[in-house]
Specification:
By secondary structure, the chain is α/β, with parallel strands linked by helices. Helix content is 49%, strand content 11%. It contains 17 helices and eleven strands. The strands form two sheets. Strands 8-7-1-6-5-9 form a six-stranded mixed beta sheet. α9 crosses α15, α13 packs antiparallel against α14 and α14 crosses α15. The longest helix is centred in the last third of the chain and has 31 residues. The chain is globular.
Length: 474
């Protein structure tokens, strides 16, 4: 790829970032997650940890360069808000990073460089607005060079590039790269730091994988203590159950989707009963690596699936495409974590001599199962057709305007019933108003519907409930 045609975009594109953005430790494990640190933050990272063996896992596919101590990555001009997929091996990525650093230096004119950011922070890339600034450049350094300096100064610290695709659990070899690094390390003392752009999706994925590996190693150690007569079976089982299996009490456990009970997951557990134990371990590690109160992180990789589905439901059709892609990727990621946890439980005793990729090869039905099942979700809510029919009868009369108060009340009752499972808040309010508007448009008498539709188009008005209702009563 010709990096000279790319623009330079700040990793932290809004405001002034923390030196160690979104730094946190996973409860009960020497495992940490963080966003892409500033140059100053890299120097301060050691103050956050002990002097024990430390591995820094860089969970990004993108080459990274530091301009004036701030991390930046290349973006295509036609897709400023999307990370570029490079599909590089770790060694190739290091070389690409050196090349990008040289290209950035070549872009500097009269000591200045055009650096891009976002006007405001938005989760959906389609809602972001680009901002370009001419920046006086004092230094340009590749991330690899900074990492080399850092490891040279700190004996016992090493780095590993793990180029996961954003939002996805691919390529599968990335699981094995993490496992290989940890297989012969102490699960209780070897420190792991997972770095990604924001410190959210890919950092969280890394922390979950590491905790699954460490938990499986600790379980083997406990079993060995029992076998050697150093501990009682009941004592060891109690620790395993409490630390690695029992879910953290939460109201969310009442919701089957927040528990991860999607069709393809149920199919996985039905066809492979051995995956039930894997799901228990994966769920516990996902929770402690996730958001408070269960964890200390930024994203719960299981709950994010249905939470993103709510955002999809509330979005306008033009922006639903991004949310749908995320949901499908998140289901795939969760499926893989259950498979990986099952693999880890089965192979920790042999120090992971069998790779996860080999495990997936042996279970040849798993890849097609998730490929065919990851989009099996109810993309559109089922609405009570009887209630809609009753509303249609109420409005399909000459004096319908006198009944609008009752009709509006019935519309909102229908919307509330349809989204009864969603917690109160802005997302639920948006969903209810969107459904009320959609249903109102569907039940309007033909001549009123055509008049409203024409005014919306001619005046370029937004199709929201208040606007449509205003046109109906006009």
């Amino acid at each position: 790829m010709d990096l000279s045609k790319c623009i330079v975009k700040l990793d932290h594109s809004v405001g002034t970032p923390d030196n160690l953005p979104n730094w946190r430790q996973i409860p009960g494990f020497p495992v940490y997650g963080v966003g892409q640190c500033t140059e100053e933050g890299l120097e301060k990272m050691n103050d956050k940890m002990t002097k024990d063996r430390t591995i820094l896992f860089i969970m990004r596919q993108e080459p990274i360069v530091y301009v004036n101590g701030q991390p930046c990555a290349p973006r295509k001009r036609e897709a400023l808000h999307d990370n570029i997929m490079f599909n590089c091996k770790p060694d190739d990525l290091a070389a690409l990073e050196v090349k990008f650093s040289s290209e950035v230096e070549a872009m500097i004119k009269d000591g200045k460089l055009e650096v891009h950011g976002d006007k405001e922070l938005h989760e959906n890339p389609m809602e972001r607005e680009d901002v370009a600034n001419e920046t006086e450049v004092t230094s340009v350094k590749s991330f690899g060079a900074l990492m080399k300096d850092m490891t040279a100064k700190n004996e016992g610290t090493s780095t590993a590039r793990v180029p996961f695709v954003e939002e996805r659990p691919l390529p599968e070899e990335c699981f094995d790269q993490i496992t290989c690094q940890l297989a012969n390390e102490s699960p209780s003392t070897c420190q792991c730091v997972f770095v990604s752009q924001m410190g959210k999706g890919r950092s969280t994925l890394g922390t979950v994988i590491a905790c699954i590996v460490k938990a499986s190693q600790m379980i083997i150690k406990l079993d060995k203590m029992v076998d050697e007569g150093m501990a009682a079976r009941d004592w060891a089982d109690g620790i395993i159950k409490t630390k690695f299996e029992d879910p953290v009490p939460s109201e969310d456990l009442k919701d089957p989707f927040l528990r991860g009970e999607f069709d393809v997951i149920k199919e996985l557990l039905e066809k492979h009963p051995e995956m039930v134990a894997g799901k228990i371990l994966a769920d516990k590690m996902i929770d402690i690596c996730g958001v408070p109160p269960e964890g200390t992180g930024l994203q719960n990789l299981r709950k994010a699936i249905i939470q993103t589905k709510y955002k999809y439901d509330a979005a306008t059709e033009d922006k639903q495409i991004v949310w749908k892609r995320m949901i499908i990727n998140f289901i795939e990621r969760y499926f893989y974590l259950i498979c990986f946890a099952t693999y880890a439980r089965q192979n920790a005793k042999d120090a992971f001599k069998k790779t996860f990729k080999q495990f997936m090869d042996e279970h040849s039905d798993l890849r097609p199962m998730i490929e065919n099942g990851k989009d099996k979700l109810e993309w559109y809510r089922k609405v009570d057709e009887g209630a809609v029919s009753s509303l249609k009868n109420m409005i399909d009369v000459p004096d319908y305007k006198t009944k609008l108060g009752a009709i509006v009340g019935s519309l909102y009752k229908l919307a509330f019933k349809t989204y009864a499972d969603i917690p109160r808040g802005p997302v639920k309010d948006n969903l209810m108003r969107k459904l009320a508007c959609k249903t109102l448009m569907e039940i309007l008498p033909p001549e009123v519907h055509d008049r409203v539709q024409k005014e919306l188009a001619e005046k370029k008005l937004s199709t929201d409930f208040d606007t449509v209702m205003g046109l109906v009563v006009a």
